[in-house]
Amino acid sequence: MRTSLTVLSVGLASLALAACEPAGPKGVDSELLTQQVSKAIGDPNTCVLIVEKGTAKVVFRYGEYTTCALGRPACDGAGTLSTDDLAKLAAAGDTRTTSCDATGDAGRVGWASGPITPSPGAQYGDLAYAANMQGPTVLPGREIKVRLESAFRKAGL
Asked: Residue 61: beta bridge partners?
């Protein structure tokens, strides 16, 4: 009986977390979008957020919540930044492609953000993205931008 309760508890917790995930941009297959982002820049230390311009409402998340919320060097001399913070800036029009050394053994940090150019017939509103990678083999910010924009097109954004 105790095992059944444990299994039930884990199942309910998983459903609750899945319910918190953004559904994705309207008219876009979120699974395909996840696959394309993963092929382009995916690794455990990557976060990509797609947000509505103006409101910064997250409509797609690639990466763990903790990865997206983790403060990392901003690479512009302004202390630290999280991908969540950059998503809010991107929603307000921030565009960036930068990278720099991280502290200690953390390797490098790469940032990219900007507007998403809608595909013809897109059903979603104005969107922007924010992305961050950290590790020993991180891509430069401009390469993150190029790869993500290609992934977005392949996914129908």
From this structure: 49
**CB–CB of 116/91 below 8 Å?**
no
Give 11-60 pLDDT, tens digit per residue.
Answer: 433 333 334 567 778 778 999 999 999 999 988 899 999 999 999 999 99
CATH number of 23-154: 3.30.450
Phi-psi map region of 24: left, alpha, beta (phi>0 left; psi -120 to 50 alpha): left
Q: Report the alpha-carbon distance of residue 67 to residue 25 in Å, rounded.
A: 21
**What residues does each domain of the chain span?**
23-154
Helix axes 141-154, 30-41, angle to 10 degrees: 150
**Spatial separation of the C-alpha atoms in residues 30 and 38, rounded to whole Å:** 12
Distance CA 107, CA 134 (A): 7
Burial class of residue 136 in the structure, from the number of CB atoms within 10 Å of its CB (0-12 exposed, 13-18 middle, 19+ buried)? exposed
DSSP 31-42: HHHHHHHHHHH-
- Provide the pLDDT confidence category of residue 102 given band limits of 50, 70 and 90: confident
> For residue 99, how far is the Cα from the chain centroid?
16
User: Distance (Å, rounded) from C-alpha 139 to C-alpha 145?
Assistant: 10
Report residue 140 as tokens.
């430069």
